[in-house]
Amino acid sequence: MTKPDISKDFTIDDIHKIREYNYEYTKGLSVAEKSTYYKSKAEAFLKEAGITPKTIATEIRKVM
Question: pTM for the complete prediction?
Answer without folding.
Answer: 0.66
